[in-house]
Write a structure and sequence with these properties.
With 706 residues, this protein is α/β, with parallel strands linked by helices. The chain has four domains: 169 residues, 3-Layer(aba) Sandwich (Rossmann fold); 78 residues, no CATH class; 197 residues, no CATH class; 184 residues, no CATH class. The chain has a seven-stranded mixed β-sheet, sandwiched between helices. Helix 12 runs antiparallel to helix 13 and helix 12 packs across helix 20. The N and C termini lie far apart (84 Å). About 1% of the residues have low confidence.
Length: 706
């Protein structure tokens, strides 16, 4: 007999750092996709999971939240789903993830979900940590106390998943709402609850409380809104008092539940390893020394491990270009393929090793629990410049990409701190700058090692990242005085336990980030590479034909100098092409910084995306150079000005690095700032202050080193 396939929706909920994301990854594997909840920028992670032969579940990973009283936008997203107010997400069952090592805090949210009277299964995680703390849990007794099925799981080791799926199936088929509430909800506001239930009979007592408190934020018709408002007035319903009384009652009941089902050790017992490690990593002196050491190793490793694969990719493309040019006929299409497509592709793929290594190491820091310690350590510094520890996570995310980093500032409740974080986050050196830094460092900084392992190039790379961070703090301090928004702020952060990194997660992240760079940034780079090839290959017809005729005559007159004259002709044609004309028009403005017209073109094109700088250089130098066997770095190294001096001196290279550290060279970032601030005022201000700062400091650096 064939079973009919049935698809259900399951909401995955829990406190932050409870193991919810690990469970989501374990259940769904690679069957995941990320979108956005309608009308907001909060991520909507969904995935498919086969629950039983006849049931497939769409699992929705809701944002982590501590209770059913939301404050941040992401908490409101989870709240609306659980209250049945989301039009798209209507889960038939809730899987509530609870941390066994922090049960008192987790049971507050769990008890609220249970009182909503929705089919619920509790997935109990972190039992190994609970065991380390000496905590013993009687799961069966706790099931009796809570009235729901509890399944111990370890998603990091794929343990308990089969039992969890069986519990989901049985709960779906056999669920009946607990006969009594976790707390006596009617004692909070009995008459008001009964009046609301008369209006909406299907509500549980506790759900009715939330209709009284938050009905203005629910999608209810105007008539029903007015009736609930009348119920509030009639019963003198006090939101704050009811909420405070509820939390007190819940913690009293949770204390009773834990006395019945949990054995905890004497709190005077010696500290576990996590506490001992925190004594070192969060030390007021050594904590900062260790943090600088971690950042130093991070950027040194990017150079140590990526050098060989990068050299291999460069060599391969140089040989491929030489091979194609040796047998392809001289025509516009062959020139487009070699100097447009192949050069652009080389400019993309050569940086994949560094991007993978950087993101792999950042993922290791996040997985291990150390990234949260960075927020804790830096809170004191952040407050002095008008921010708080919550600003650190968007800023650290800015090392990857400013766009999602700015979107993540919605977790910062304080308006002024959020705005300051948005304004300074683009000063963090994002991954798009990495290809620019790499090519410039290799051109002007010697490949020296001190003590056999300290790379000078790695030190410079770390210095550029630290410069962006320091300038961000200085700018925030100045803007703190200018922006007049007065609002108290609080910094509450939960430190996750130290754990070994999930190497599968690290590898998946590395691959995903490489794919994003190649396919998203790569599309832009390739389009601009081909556009630049066209601008570099064509120019005003009269001017280009005159140059071509002049050199043809000279070659006929001096056949022995044909190679040299051809090289001169190509350089002059490039200079008089449309690209050359654009670059030369910018030269008066950028010459004081030590830049030539080719760099001027790159500054314009890289406004679409910073990493386009390298693709622009690859195209410009390929079009004007006969030596297709040379790498881009070799071509740039050999570049000279009309007076015979080198283009890429130490002064020019450092000036250009400073410019890319500080300048707002990203249209996408400006667009997302406009979206988040709902005004063009702040993105325009950001563009002006960052460009002005970049120009001024680049000028100073060039004058100091020339």
């Amino acid at each position: 007999m064939e079973t009919t396939a049935h698809t259900i929706q399951i909401a995955l909920v829990g406190n932050p750092n409870s193991g919810k994301t690990s469970l989501f990854n374990a259940l769904t594997g690679l069957n995941q996709k990320v979108g956005n909840f309608p009308g907001v920028t909060v991520d909507k992670k969904t995935g498919l999971c086969a629950i039983s032969p006849g049931i497939t579940a769409t699992i929705i990973d809701l944002p982590g939240t501590y209770s059913l009283y939301p404050r941040r936008e992401d908490e409101w997203v989870a709240y609306r789903v659980l209250m049945g107010q989301d039009k798209e997400v209507k889960p038939e069952l809730v899987v509530l993830v609870a941390d066994a090592s922090n049960l008192k805090r987790n049971l507050l949210f769990a008890s609220q979900i249970i009182d909503l009277k929705v089919p619920t299964v509790v997935a109990l995680t972190m039992q190994d940590i609970a065991k380390q703390k000496g905590i013993e849990i009687d799961v069966q007794q706790m099931e009796r106390e809570l009235g729901v099925v509890i399944v111990p799981v370890n998603p990091r080791k794929n343990k308990g998943l089969t039992q969890l799926k069986k519990a989901i199936v049985s709960t779906l088929h056999l669920y009946s709402a607990p006969s009594r509430d976790f707390i006596a909800t009617t004692t909070l506001a009995g008459d008001a609850i009964n009046d609301v239930k008369e209006l909406i009979p299907e509500l549980s007592d506790y759900r009715a409380v939330h209709y009284l408190i938050n009905h203005e934020s629910f999608a209810l018709d105007n008539q029903l809104q007015d009736k609930i408002e009348l119920v509030e007035k009639k019963n003198n319903f006090n939101h704050t008092k009811v909420q405070a009384e509820e939390i007190l009652q819940r913690y009293q009941r949770i204390k009773s539940v834990m006395q019945q089902s949990v054995k905890e050790p004497d709190p005077k017992q010696k500290q576990i390893m996590a506490d001992r490690l925190d004594n070192i990593f969060l030390h007021r002196v050594w904590g900062y020394v260790i943090l600088l050491g971690v950042l130093f190793l991070l950027f040194q490793s990017v150079f140590w491990f990526a050098q060989f694969p990068m050299d291999g990719i460069e060599w391969s493309f140089a040989k491929a270009a030489n091979w194609f040019s040796s047998w392809m006929p001289e025509a516009w299409w062959s020139d487009l393929f070699i100097n447009g497509i192949l050069a652009g592709l080389s400019g993309i793929l050569v940086f994949v090793p560094q991007i993978m290594i950087l993101f792999g190491l950042i993922t290791v820091l996040e997985d291990s629990g150390y990234m949260a310690r960075i927020s804790f350590l830096t809170d004191r510094i952040m407050r002095k410049v008008g921010l708080n520890g919550k600003s650190v996570m968007p800023m650290i995310s800015g090392f990857a990409c400013a766009v999602p980093a700015i979107m993540s500032t919605r977790n910062i409740e304080n308006k002024k701190e959020r705005l300051l974080t948005i304004l300074i986050t683009p000063l963090m050196s994002c991954s798009a700058r990495l290809p620019v830094y790499t090519i410039l460092i290799s051109l002007v900084i010697p490949n020296k090692y001190y003590g056999g392992f300290l790379s000078l190039q790695g030190l410079v790379m770390m210095g550029l990242y630290l410069l962006g961070l320091v300038m961000a703090l200085i700018v925030s301090y100045v803007m703190k005085q200018i922006i007049r928004i007065k609002e108290k702020s609080f910094f509450i952060l939960e430190l996750p336990l130290y754990r070994p990194p999930r190497w599968k997660n690290v590898i998946v992240t590395m691959v995903e980030k490489a794919k994003i760079f190649v396919f998203d940034a790569g599309k832009v780079i390739m389009m601009i590479s081909m556009l630049l090839w066209a601008l570099s290959s064509f120019g005003p017809k009269d001017r280009m034909s005159t140059i071509a005729q002049q050199y043809e005559q000279q070659i006929k007159q001096q056949p022995g100098k044909a190679a040299e004259l051809n090289k001169e002709k190509k350089a002059l044609l490039l200079e008089n092409s449309y690209a050359g004309i654009v670059g030369r028009s910018l030269q008066p403005a950028i010459q004081p910084l030590g830049y030539d017209w080719k760099i001027g073109i790159a500054l314009v094109t890289s406004f679409a995306a910073r990493e386009v700088f390298v693709g622009t250089m690859a195209t410009l130098y390929s079009v004007g150079d006969d030596d297709s066997d040379a790498t881009l770095r070799q071509k740039m190294q050999a570049a000279v000005k009309p007076d015979g001096t080198k283009v890429y001196t130490l002064a020019t290279g450092l000036s250009l690095m400073i410019f890319y550290v500080l300048a707002m060279q990203c249209m996408s970032t400006l667009a997302v700032v406009k979206r988040e601030t709902r005004s063009w005022k702040w993105p325009i201000f950001q563009l002006l202050y960052m460009t002005g700062l970049a120009y001024l400091l680049s000028l100073v650096v060039y004058q100091l080193f020339k």
